[in-house]
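Good morning N.,

You mentioned wanting to compare the apo and holo forms, so I went ahead and generated the holo version with NAP. This is what I fed in:
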Amino acid sequence: MLKVLVLGATSPIARGLAMRFATDGARLYLAARDPHEARRIADDLEVRAGTPALAGAFDAEDFSSHEDFLRNAVGELGGLDGVIVCFGAHAEEERAQVEPHVAVAEIAQNFTGAVSLITLVGRHMEAQGTGFIIVIGSVAGERGRARNYVYGSSKGALQLFTQGLRGRLAKTAVHVMTVKLGTVDTRMTWGREGVLLSISPERAADMIYRAYRRKSEVVYVPRRWRFIMGGVRLIPERQFKHLSF
Ligand SMILES: NC(=O)c1ccc[n+]([C@@H]2O[C@H](COP(=O)([O-])OP(=O)(O)OC[C@H]3O[C@@H](n4cnc5c(N)ncnc54)[C@H](OP(=O)(O)O)[C@@H]3O)[C@@H](O)[C@H]2O)c1
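and this is what came out, ligand included:
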């Protein structure tokens, strides 16, 4: 039975992915900042998928707790075959662009926290020689835009980090997948202006799960973002800086 840790379990995308893994018989550990909410989601999953699910708390910004958290999660699961990194924040872009502590907190949530946890997971996976790590990135990480560059830079850095890790683990059977996610209809995008081509979290989870099953390494979800971002990358910087999208 596949043992899978989900980081950021209250995200509807994470819930959709957890459901797909559970339906295929995986044993899950759902981790979120609020342990009661994580337990509630695990209970719901147990009823709907018919497989037991564990739940626990973690905070991406509490770096010093990560080693103990992971050791406990692996202990409770009885091993670790895969990790889904699905936490992130994009709440206060306007403030983050002018207030350093807000910017630094967002980078800690999206990037530094992920680096800390993925490094520990990478070490575990490297030692066992097998496993998978799915990292939910964003198309916002492809190019710095005036509208969202604090969030975008955290995701861009995460994508580079994941790419390097994939290279380091290339000699093992560890599958490291970067998801370059387009807009998804979740609380992260709720009420935000200029949200285009949004898809449901269930649809996103379906596409991510299928990409994992075919062992994709870098995947745009949905696929159309690959072509959109290909075009976006071609715009010369001199013009790009004036665009407001
Ligand atoms: N929605 C989109 O359009 C979109 C597009 C591209 C990429 N993404 C990425 O998809 C992932 C899921 O986002 P979502 O759209 O499903 O939004 P969401 O519902 O807001 O989920 C974000 C998740 O991150 C968790 N989180 C935030 N800060 C945390 C911290 N310090 N420690 C632990 N967990 C923390 C949240 O936990 P709490 O419940 O405790 O707040 C929540 O589970 C994120 O990585 C996001 O960047 C989303």
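The chain has one domain: 3-240.

Happy to go through it together on a call whenever suits you.

Best,
F.
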